[in-house]
Amino acid sequence: MRVVFGGTFDPVHIGHLRMANELASYLSLDKVYLMPCFRAVHKQGVGASSEHRLNMLALALESDNSIALDDRESQRGQASYTIDSLQELRQEVGCEPLCLVMGTDVAKGLASWLRIDEFSKLTNIIVIRRPDEQYSGLDKERMLEQSLEALSFSPAATVEDIKMASAGKYIMINLTALEVSSSHIRKSVKQGLSIRYLVTDAVREYICDNALYQN
Ligand code: ATP
Known about the structure:
Elements: E1 2-7, H1 14-26, E2 32-36, H2 50-61, E3 67-69, H3 72-75, H4 82-93, E4 98-103, H5 104-107, H6 119-122, E5 124-128, H7 138-150, E6 154-155, H8 159-164, E7 169-173, H9 182-190, H10 201-209
Parallel strand pairs: 1-2, 1-4, 2-3, 4-5, 5-7, 6-7
The protein binds adenosine-5'-triphosphate.
């Protein structure tokens, strides 16, 4: 099974790392892949270059064998869409299960993604409840489930179900919720506040050495 967690990672922080690490053990996998986009289609004009984001990811992943980098989108050298990566990944894994991981904040916007109607043929979806969503009302969660079902994903009763399905299933899970976001980190750097313990030390030094997120 291939499990890929896409994002901007601008910068990668302990919330991403803890989530990927915990997911690997939750799914009894050797590795979970982080796949940074070259440029976020929906977040243009903010943050660090693709090269800086990749360098920070490489530093952050140095000491954790359970998380690996999938740099295919960065290597394309231009903004690209998740559907392109899913098609490539599907070719690589054959009929093995493929899972795209995302937080509830991202899952809510899925309906607007390019060629979303093709996703359920290519991948499963694992939705991680974000800290601010963990205690949200059942109605909100049911709405998200209904939107995934409208996109032809069917609910997986257990995590074993997802592991058996090549594509077309979704599951929503709770992992340790760390209240940290890249936008909070960028804002803190800009304001001259400490980001110690929100990112790894190597990433913090990289941000400082390269004067990232100052403007
Ligand atoms: P920003 O604050 O700039 O929106 P972000 O912190 O949400 O960034 P992204 O790179 O946009 O990070 O997110 C990549 C993926 O990581 C998304 O699926 C998002 O839901 C998830 N994610 C982000 N922060 C956390 C966290 N603290 N815990 C678990 N998942 C997270």
